[in-house]
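Board work, copied verbatim: Cochlin
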Amino acid sequence: ALFTMKATVIAIFFGVFLTCTYTAKEATKKTKKAKLYVPQIDCDVKAGKIINPEFIAKCPPGCQDVKYRVYGTDIYASFSSVCNAAIHSGIIDNTGGKILVQKVAGHSGYRGSFSNGVRSLSLPRWRESFLVSEGKPRKGVTYPSTLEYSSSKSTAVKSGNDRVHVPTGDAVRKEYQTTPVPTPATQMATTTATPTTTMTDPSTTAPQPTTTPAATRTTAAAAKTRPGLHRVRDMAFRGASTSASSRTILRHNTGVQRQEPVATFQRAAGSPAHLAMETDSWKPGLSLFDTGFSSKEELNPKPLEPISQGNQNCKVDLSFLMDGSWSIGKRRFQLQKRFLGNVAQALGIGSAGPLMGIVQYGDDPSTEFNLKTYANSKDLRNAIEKIQQKGGLSNVGKALSFVNKNFFLDANGNRGGAPNVVVVMVDGWPTDRVEEASRLARESGINIFFVTVEAAAQNEKQNVIEPNFVDKVLMCRTSGFYSINVPSWFSLHKVVQPLVKRVCDTDQLVCSKTCLNSADIGFVIDGSSSVGTSNFRTVLQFVANISKEFEISDTDTRIGAVQYTYEQRLEFSFDKYSTKQDVLNAIKRISYWSGGTSTGAAISYASEQLFSKSKPNKRKIMILITDGRSYDDVSMPAMAAHQNGVIAYSIGVAWAAPDELEAIATDPDKEHSFFVDEFDNLYRYVNQLIQNICTEFNSQPRN
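↓ predict structure ↓
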């Protein structure tokens, strides 16, 4: 019996030991499995939407044809599709797979190329970039098991067992339920509202304020907590603390301290992205310190009015640069605030109409509030009344640079599908250079209006840098559309309606256009006998490859074509086809003519049959392809075309005459004229030609 009892005790002990061992192993497996979890992203996710500075993610299969394109090669602009960039770079193929993404600074001259079945586009510049490589963890780097997104709106529910989880906070965290996901140890420090997941009636939905918890939370990449007081630097980045109730901001040159409660409010809804106006909110080590905004810009401790739909005939994203310099004085500063309040009322602020933020400038600029802070005119007017004057000089150029780099971000309410508009209020004259900052802002797709009041006082003239700054900074220098001069601050109320009318006239807001969606492009194609049937098909493929890179519709870029020998034939006009596929099909159907070579007559014919019918707000671009010397003069017809606003590009093949190519091309010749030794090499100039078109577009006033 004793032996039996001992055997039983041993068996029980052994059983408990095996059970504990098995349980420990299973727990270890689960822990390891959670650590190795790789989040999946959609084919259409753009790098700029994910704010993690470095992450590993899994792309699903079938990502080669996505909504968002790829811009760049090796280094990609951050509004590119992440998965499509990975396919283009050869890291994965169309079956999907894991990729490693690293965020880097913005670049100039992104190079387009065709690789692995994906066409990437060139781009003059963009503010953030990223690299993709094989999805292998780097030593010493901890990768997130959930990704943080810059948009605060909920993402559509995925199929199967995957679902989107939207917690309170700055990021939208996408968590997949198929695998246990450990709670991240760190989160972004921010102050935002609980995201709204249903928007059935925006007009009756009031956003709920959320205050920051007392404990500061930061990501591994975020900057360490800094002191609560900061001086505004040239780049206008401001420090921000995350105290639970209030903070004190010391305003430079004023000696005035303001108590400003910290709370933010959720924007009603976003809108589709567009190449020209979409910007990315990611910055390396993103935190509230690095966004370029002090905490006040999103603040109002009182409950807001219900979200308004607003004036839907005036959907613009608007920033007012408010003059806070000492020269304006206290009384005129109050008149300026009253004017801005009246403009806000006249605009009809709302989620489906205009949104408005304010940046005050003096020595340095700072954001009073951004686009998503207020969703109706009443709250906006109340906030304007509380703005205190900064003081300092009138550094308008610095303020424009600040707005260009920091204001129109998705995280700050930029909607992408709405034109970006800046209205600059100037008392007297700027005290720094404005021309360069204005040019860079225009190239970023920002429409700039100037409201100048009075002239520089006698004691201010010594600080004036550019006496004729208005003539230098406006896009349409002769029309006066973008400039309003008011003789006195006391008559400022008279220009409320004229300004609102211009700001809302989206047909004339030319900077909402880009090099890819704002041209009438006419191809003038040599169909002479020396070309031959086979080479003619190669030329048509070249024409198609160029055309498909543009955004084609009856309101965007339009394509027309002329073929010539001794005679000329209109293959199709600008208004014939309004979709890209119809244009490509029409190019494919062009039949080879054969005959002599009268290039001069063809230029005159294209000017009359194509470009004379171009829309006033379109850039007229002629692309002429020829393989030999013309039987007639080309210089006079080309000069006439140039004088009528036609931007001419000449592409010569084989026996084309260099002197004629230069005469046809718009100056400078080296940027508008190309030569290839044989037809089969035409494809090499597709990207170069598009890049030159975009560079020329960005460098010229938008008339």
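DSSP finds 15 helices and 23 strands in the chain.
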